[in-house]
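Supplementary Methods. Inverse-folding protocol.

Structures were first reduced to a discrete structure-token string of length 443. This string, shown here, constituted the complete conditioning input.
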């Protein structure tokens, strides 16, 4: 069945469910349905460890009876099951407390235009091909160097699906999407020391993935480079967060400026709108409509139209991120962030990776972060780390068993440079980030 026909059939189901909800007493309702089929293959030590097929789907409905909310879901799309699901949602709404902020997004904010974002690139779910890719990836890593002594495995994943959303304001639309990935994790040994590292590739198009050989060899090389890791003395030094994990720094910004944290007054960035948080040269833009990007969407999970936005403008906080509910709690409007962010593009200072090391001089290049020691209420930051010690702009040796600590406010303000080569495998696209000074806890 063609994907367009499947989406049309699901739209009919969503329309029927919304009609049922109104007939059963709902004053407003919204329904969404997703369907995903895929394959996941994993190998370990040149043998197939797991082959898994996915064919999942389900419909969820939320109804509002006045300002009372009820939700229910089902994987059974028979008419009787759908009727029962709607009845349950309406029954639940009659028993929940009234909430003046409950309800659909404002009608004028609902998306009405749906350009093709090039998110769907289907490919046959070929088991033999998937196994071949995973085995080739792991083989490339195992054969790379004799110091690669063990494997945590390689994997290949392919997922294709669709999402349909509709509500009683009139929207009822859907889109297909695809996602493919290859990953590999290796273990290296030298003497009594063992180290582990990984590499991966992910894209909307299978043809644009890194080759199995490239992923495997990157995993092996990254693992070998960690051999000979040392501890270092406690000090205050500059730190570079490698682009592979620098997105996590801006992920903390996302949490701190999200409406849910704000109306609960549990964010260190409360009442900071318009204030200088970053250096003046830094701007962060949100681009929801980038072709083929991993976080592109014409509308959020509530049907609110997404649009280009400036998040950080010359270092100043230009906006908070609102869902419908959080916006009403804060007496403003949703700006399309139910379900997350949509392609943040972090500005850079034009530095190459080598130039960034030279700019730092002596300090720590962080390539792995561990633990969850970040407090969004206070902005306190403390995480386990590993990476490489750098002197005079040149990597000297690997480092492990250290902790980097500071406050997110200081970390944001003390960003000295950001690399021009961006990591694009996620919802935040950023280069490596040089922070002028952090506390490194070691020996």
């Amino acid at each position: 069945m063609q994907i367009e026909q499947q989406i049309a059939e699901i739209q009919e189901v969503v329309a029927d469910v919304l009609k049922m909800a109104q007939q059963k007493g709902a004053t407003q309702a919204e329904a969404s349905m997703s369907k995903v089929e895929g394959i996941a293959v994993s190998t370990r030590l040149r043998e197939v460890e797991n082959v898994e097929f996915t064919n999942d789907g389900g419909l969820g409905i939320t109804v509002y009876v006045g300002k009372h909310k009820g939700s229910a879901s089902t994987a059974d799309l028979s008419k009787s099951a759908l009727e029962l699901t709607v009845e349950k949602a309406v029954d639940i709404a009659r028993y929940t407390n009234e909430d003046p902020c409950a309800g659909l997004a404002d009608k004028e904010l609902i998306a009405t235009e749906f350009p093709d974002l090039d998110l769907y690139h289907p490919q046959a779910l070929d088991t033999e091909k998937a196994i071949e890719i995973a085995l080739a990836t792991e083989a490339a890593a195992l054969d790379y160097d004799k110091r690669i002594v063990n494997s945590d495995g390689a994997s290949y994943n392919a997922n294709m699906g669709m999402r349909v959303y509709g509500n009683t304001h009139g929207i009822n639309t859907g889109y297909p999407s695809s996602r493919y990935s290859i990953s590999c994790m290796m273990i290296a040994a030298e003497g009594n020391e063992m180290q582990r590292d990984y590499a991966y590739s992910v894209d909307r198009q299978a043809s644009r993935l890194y080759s199995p050989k490239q992923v495997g060899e990157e995993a092996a090389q990254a693992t070998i480079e960690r051999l000979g890791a040392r501890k270092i003395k406690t000090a205050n030094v500059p730190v570079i967060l490698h682009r592979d994990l620098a997105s996590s720094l801006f992920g903390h910004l996302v949490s701190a400026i999200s409406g849910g944290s704000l109306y609960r007054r549990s964010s260190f960035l409360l009442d900071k709108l318009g204030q200088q948080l970053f250096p003046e040269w830094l701007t962060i833009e949100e681009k929801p409509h980038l072709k083929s990007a991993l976080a592109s969407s014409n509308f959020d999970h509530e049907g609110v139209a997404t649009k280009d936005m400036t998040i950080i403008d010359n270092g100043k906080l230009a906006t908070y991120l609102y869902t419908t509910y959080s916006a009403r709690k804060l007496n403003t409007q949703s700006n399309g962030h139910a379900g997350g962010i949509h392609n943040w593009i972090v500005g850079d200072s034009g530095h190459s990776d080598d130039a960034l090391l030279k700019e730092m001089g002596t300090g720590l290049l962080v390539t792995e972060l561990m633990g969850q020691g970040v407090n969004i209420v206070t902005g306190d930051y403390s995480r386990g780390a590993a990476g490489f010690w750098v002197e005079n702009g040149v990597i000297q040796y690997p480092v492990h068993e250290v902790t980097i600590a500071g406050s997110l406010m200081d970390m944001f303000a003390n960003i000295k440079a950001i690399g021009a080569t961006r990591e694009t495998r996620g919802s935040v696209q950023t280069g490596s980030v040089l922070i002028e000074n952090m506390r490194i806890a070691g020996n």
